[in-house]
């Protein structure tokens, strides 16, 4: 309701990660031009530090104490807004104003650099709602469970704006935990489920879900943020209501979450959900938009001649160049995740070792207990037996307690590349 109130007052909403450090919050505040901040008291300290560093007065900070928390001394509760008087909503009904008026500045994932403030207009959110919920209407009351970060474009449209427009019931979890998640799905008879690959994997590997039909109320499920293997997707599908589709969606912050759909006959259009641009970031706009206004997503895709469907296989910047061959990390990751002792995996290209070539490297999380003794050679042999020789993990294998990911579940391969380059600069050379 706060988000709608911000828009109703003519303001622009931006949400940030509650785990951010003062430095990260400072970047967010500067990039979005935030002037007022509302926060729960538990995470107030780094926000105060960021506000001081960016010059925002503490009087512009309100404490969101909806659970009866104590308001820190010297700060004000958001409830003070109730006594600030009333004013009618800012209203407009013309297309031009709708297209040009910002409703939110949501941030890109930051997989290739600092997160960018992406301007999303009222038209973007209207189009997103129509695309997802109105083109193919559900013949039932939509009930959703939100355990994804609501400051991110993956969840914000369907959590903040669509429930009011569509009359949806949305239950919100403070954070994801598997037992609480499946319990709430069953308790509230959730019909529409949105997950990211780590949640999907956790669901299909859960003994509780295999023993009891927790998910049988779900009539449609979708997974995004990163590729999901066909095996996991199919296992999740059979856990849902009979005949319920389980699909992978493609989208990005710049397309207001899910990308546009096309009809049978349509004049080329840049898409009503596409952002008009990054907020005050001319360099990013110049590199991402062409002179005709088309946004270049950076995805690698192919069109199947039989199905006439487009398949997104990877990000252009993430393809690994191996002696003239192009290796897609998701293919290697899918094979690694099929190993019974591996619970998570990420693959990058190791550069700076060979001239004009990269070496595939895997970062792997072993299954606790049984997987503790899994060795680098065993992982390399497992993949080598299943894929072409040029896809071998010649850059080595590194074991991690957890693969670094952003709040929406997307693997932060930039972080892995930076760590790998430190090794190379320190003299690391794999045995080839």
From TrEMBL:
Residues 331-410 form the AMP-binding enzyme C-terminal domain. Coiled coil: none annotated. GO terms for biological process: secondary metabolic process. SUPFAM superfamilies: Acetyl-CoA synthetase-like. One of its GO terms (molecular function) is CoA-ligase activity. Residues 2-270 form the AMP-dependent synthetase/ligase domain. InterPro entries: AMP-bd_C, AMP-bd_C_sf, AMP-dep_synth/lig_dom. This is Unnamed protein product. It comes from Aspergillus oryzae (Yellow koji mold).
């Amino acid at each position: 309701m706060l988000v709608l109130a911000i828009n109703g007052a003519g303001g622009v909403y931006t949400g940030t990660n509650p785990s951010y450090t003062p430095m990260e919050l400072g970047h967010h505040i500067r990039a979005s031009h935030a002037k007022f901040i509302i926060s729960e008291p538990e995470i107030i300290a780094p926000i105060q530090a960021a506000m001081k560093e960016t010059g925002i007065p503490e009087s512009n900070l309100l404490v969101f104490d909806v659970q009866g928390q104590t308001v820190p001394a010297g700060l004000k509760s958001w409830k003070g807004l109730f006594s600030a008087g009333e004013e009618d909503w800012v209203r407009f009904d013309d297309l031009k104003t709708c297209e040009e008026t910002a409703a939110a500045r949501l941030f890109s994932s930051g997989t290739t650099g600092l997160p960018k403030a992406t301007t999303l207009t009222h038209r973007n959110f209207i189009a997103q709602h129509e695309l997802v919920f109105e083109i193919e209407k559900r013949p039932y009351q939509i009930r959703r469970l939100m355990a994804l970060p609501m400051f991110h474009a993956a969840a914000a449209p369907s959590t903040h704006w669509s429930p009011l427009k569509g009359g949806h019931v949305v239950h919100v979890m403070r954070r994801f935990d598997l037992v609480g998640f499946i319990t709430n799905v069953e308790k509230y008879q959730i019909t529409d489920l949105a997950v990211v690959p780590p949640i999907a994997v956790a669901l299909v590997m859960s003994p509780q879900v295999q023993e009891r039909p927790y998910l049988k109320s779900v009539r449609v499920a979708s997974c995004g943020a990163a590729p999901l293997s066909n095996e996991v997707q199919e296992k999740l599908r059979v856990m849902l209501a009979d005949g319920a589709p389980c699909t992978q969606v493609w989208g990005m912050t710049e397309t207001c979450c899910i990308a546009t759909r096309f009809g049978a006959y349509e004049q080329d259009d840049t898409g009503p959900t596409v952002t008009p641009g990054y907020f005050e970031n001319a360099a990013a706009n110049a590199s991402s938009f062409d002179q005709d206004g088309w946004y270049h997503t950076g995805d690698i895709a192919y069109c199947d001649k039989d199905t006439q469907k487009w398949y997104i296989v990877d990000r252009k910047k993430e393809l690994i160049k191996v002696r003239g061959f192009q290796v897609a990390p998701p293919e290697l990751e899918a094979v690694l995740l099929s190993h019974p002792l591996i619970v998570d995996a990420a693959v990058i290209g190791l550069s700076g070792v060979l001239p004009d070539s990269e070496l595939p490297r895997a970062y792997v999380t072993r299954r606790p207990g049984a997987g503790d003794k899994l060795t680098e050679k065993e992982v390399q042999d497992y993949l080598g037996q299943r894929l072409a020789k040029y896809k071998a993990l010649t850059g080595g294998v590194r074991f991690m307690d957890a693969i670094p990911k952003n709040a929406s579940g997307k693997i932060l391969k930039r972080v892995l590349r930076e760590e790998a380059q430190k090794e190379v600069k320190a003299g690391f050379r794999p045995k080839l």
